[in-house]
Every structure is written in structure tokens, then in C-alpha cells.
Design brief:
The chain is mostly helical and about 120 residues long. It is about 70% helix and about 0% strand.
């Protein structure tokens, strides 16, 4: 998710007040405390292309967790949780298409969630 990656980078380079101002202009859902972003849904987990949506869900989660903590924003935390929870139980589904790499993305999300 290029926009969320940009959000994550800016969180790292701007001080807190500048980031809060910038992020509220960048994604209006942050300012309004109602960002709504549905997880990517995978219809066929054996499709090596579609299973990348689980990876997208994890990368969205780790970007949102970082921003949520920086902004003290529960809405972002809830959206991140929704993405993580959708894909977390699918990283060991028995199909090589996702199983061989998704765990590393899940760890990034979990590490960011637990970082205080």
C-alpha cells in the first residue's frame, strides 16, 4: 500500500507535531478518526498472485500500527488489527504459494504492534 508506506516513512522523519499535521492532511480519515480500509480478500490461496494480498494486509498493519502509536489513534490501531487478524491464521494453510514467505511479513506487523 504505497500511501501507507509513505505514512510510515513520514512518521519516522517528522517530529510528532509536524507528523500529526501532515498525516491529517494526507489521509482525511485520520483527522476524522474514521479511516476505513478493508483487508484484501483472497478467494484462491493456491494462486501465487492472489496470496500476495495477505502480504499487503500485513504491510498495511505494520504501517498503521506505527502511525497509531505515534498519533495515539485507536481507530488506526483497530484497522491494523483487522488486517492482521484477517491474514494471520492463513500463514500456515499448507499451500507453498504463501506459506514460504508470509510469516516474515506477519512478524513485522506483530513486532510493530507490540513496540511501545
Amino acid at each position: 500500500s504505497p500511501c501507507l508506506e509513505e505514512l510510515d516513512i513520514m512518521r519516522r522523519v517528522l517530529d510528532e507535531s509536524k507528523f500529526a499535521d501532515w498525516s491529517s492532511k494526507f489521509l482525511t480519515g485520520i483527522r476524522e478518526n474514521n479511516l476505513n480500509l478493508e483487508p484484501g480478500k483472497i478467494k484462491d490461496r493456491s494462486d501465487g498472485k492472489l496470496v500476495h494480498l495477505d502480504g499487503l494486509n500485513f504491510s498495511r498493519a505494520w504501517c498503521l500500527y506505527g502511525a497509531a502509536q505515534h498519533l495515539n489513534n485507536q481507530n488506526l490501531m483497530d484497522v491494523a488489527d483487522k488486517h492482521l487478524e484477517y491474514s494471520l491464521n492463513k500463514i500456515a494453510d499448507g499451500d507453498y504459494a504463501g506459506e514460504h514467505w508470509l510469516a516474515s511479513f506477519a512478524l513485522y506487523a506483530l513486532k510493530t504492534k507490540d513496540f511501545k
